[in-house]
Write a structure and sequence with these properties.
The chain is an all-alpha fold and 131 residues long. It contains five helices and no strands.
């Protein structure tokens, strides 16, 4: 079976079409997600979400032979989105922890000085710093 046949079967709701698409792409796309996320469970979760999304949007696939590449884009985008959410959460958590630490300081002068500099600081990419 090729991808054109499998996509046609899947669009018709036939299990063998979905099964072929899943079995022929799972291993490579799992490693793609794992490369992004560095976490086996997160990679499996992303892959599950990606298959649901891909099978739901199968009608939008213009060239069925490109299914592996199209599916890879879905996996990559979902993995990148997960990383962005994780980074945002980590930053907000560390920011919250820092604010709590500042509020617990005994010296009001230290607290206001550090607090002002912390609250007005912005995160800049490392490429902005000069050596």
């Amino acid at each position: 079976m090729n991808y054109t046949q499998a996509v046609a079967l899947a669009k018709a709701g036939k299990e063998e079409g979905f099964q072929f698409l899943y079995e022929s792409t799972y291993k490579n796309k799992y490693y793609l997600a794992l490369k992004y996320l560095k976490d086996e469970q997160a990679a499996q979760d992303i892959l599950q979400d990606a298959y649901i999304k891909a099978f739901d949007k199968l009608d939008t696939l213009q060239n069925p032979e490109t299914f592996p590449a199209w599916f890879g884009v879905i996996v990559g985008n979902l993995a990148k989105n997960r990383l962005q959410k994780k980074i945002r959460y980590c930053f907000l958590t560390s920011q919250s922890t820092m604010k709590k630490s500042l509020l617990n300081m005994k010296s009001k002068t230290k607290r206001s000085t550090i607090s002002r500099s912390f609250l007005t600081a912005s995160v800049k990419p490392s490429s902005w710093y000069t050596k």
